[in-house]
Specification:
single chain; 275 residues; mainly alpha; Arc Repressor Mutant, subunit A; two-stranded antiparallel ribbon; 6 strands; 55% helix
Length: 275
C-alpha cells in the first residue's frame, strides 16, 4: 500500500511538471510570432514547437492514465480487479473464403476446434496459412459480438455458443431442467481446481468434513477431474486435477482465467446453485 501511494505521489509530481512544460510551450508561440526572424525560420520553429507540444501532451495523457490506475488500486487495497481475458480483438482484413469456410466448420462441429484442427480440414494444396485462420476467427468473433450467439475460445478450441444473457430464453426450448449441484460438490471441485494436484485427504482437511466416494465418482464420470498420479506415501492415494472438459463446461480458456476464489466462496454461501 505504501509503495502504491509513493508511486501515485511521484506520478502526480511528474504530471505537474509535464503540464507546466506544456503551458510554457504554448506561451512560446507568441514569442515566435513577435520575434524579428525571416518567415522561413518562423515556419520551421513553429513546426518544431508543434511536434514538441504533441509529444508533451501525449506524455501528460499517459501520466494521467497511470495516476488514475494507481489511485483505483489504492481504493481496492492494492488488489487488481479480475478482468476476463476473453476480450474481442480488433478485426483485420481477412480472406473472405477462408472466413466463410471457418464459420461453416465451427457451426457444423460438435466439439470446439483449434486452429490446427481447422487447418487440417483444408486440402494440402489449398490450405491457407494458420495465421489466416486465426485472423478469420478474430474477425468472426468481432462480427458476432453484438449478436445472440458468440464465437468463444475455451480450453479445447473455438466454438459457437449462446450468450449468457440469452441462456434463460433458450432454456425454454428444453423440457429438462438444468442439473443442480450441491454446495458440497461445488466446494470439492473448487478445491481441486485451485489447489491441484490434491488427494481426497487434502480435500477433507480443507473442507473439514469427509468427502464421499460417490462425489469423487460423479466428478470422474463427468470428466471434470482425472487422476494425475499417485502420491508416494503409504497407501499411494490418487492425486486429482481438473480436465479440459471442466474448463469447457465452465466456459474457461485456461486455469489462469478462473475468477478469484473469493467470488466462488460468495456464491457457495448462497447454497445450492444451478449451473
Amino acid at each position: 500500500m505504501a509503495e502504491l501511494t509513493a508511486k501515485v505521489v511521484s506520478l502526480q509530481d511528474q504530471l505537474e511538471t509535464a503540464s507546466e512544460i506544456t503551458a510554457q510551450q504554448f506561451s512560446a508561440e507568441a514569442d515566435f510570432q513577435a520575434a524579428e526572424k525571416s518567415e522561413s525560420v518562423i515556419v520551421a520553429l513553429k513546426e518544431q514547437q508543434r511536434k514538441i507540444l504533441e509529444e508533451q501532451q501525449q506524455k501528460v495523457a499517459e501520466l494521467e492514465a497511470q495516476v488514475a490506475s494507481l489511485q483505483e488500486q489504492l481504493k481496492t487495497g492494492g488488489q487488481v480487479s479480475y478482468i476476463p481475458s476473453d476480450s474481442v480483438p480488433v478485426p483485420v482484413d481477412v480472406n473472405s473464403k477462408v472466413k466463410r469456410i471457418t464459420e461453416a466448420l465451427l457451426f457444423a462441429a460438435e466439439q470446439p476446434m483449434t486452429v490446427k484442427q481447422l487447418h487440417a480440414v483444408f486440402p494440402e494444396l489449398e490450405a491457407p496459412k494458420k495465421q489466416q485462420i486465426q485472423d478469420a476467427l478474430d474477425s468472426l468473433r468481432y462480427d458476432y459480438k453484438d449478436q445472440g450467439i458468440e464465437l468463444h475460445k475455451v480450453a479445447s478450441g473455438y466454438r459457437f455458443q449462446v450468450k449468457s444473457d440469452m441462456a434463460s430464453w433458450v432454456a425454454r426450448l428444453f423440457a429438462e431442467k438444468p442439473p443442480k449441484y450441491s454446495r458440497a460438490l461445488l466446494e470439492t471441485i473448487a478445491i481441486i481446481a485451485y489447489q491441484q494436484p490434491v488427494t481426497r485427504g487434502d480435500i477433507e482437511e480443507i473442507r473439514g468434513v469427509s468427502v464421499s466416494s460417490n462425489m469423487i465418482k460423479t466428478l470422474l464420470e463427468r470428466e471434470w477431474i482425472t487422476v494425475l498420479a499417485h502420491k508416494e506415501v503409504p497407501g499411494r492415494p490418487a492425486l486429482y486435477g481438473t480436465t479440459r472438459q471442466f474448463l469447457d463446461y465452465f466456459n474457461l480458456d485456461s486455469l489462469a482465467t478462473m475468477p478469484p476464489l473469493e467470488e466462488l466462496q460468495a456464491l457457495a454461501l448462497e447454497g445450492e446453485m444451478e449451473i
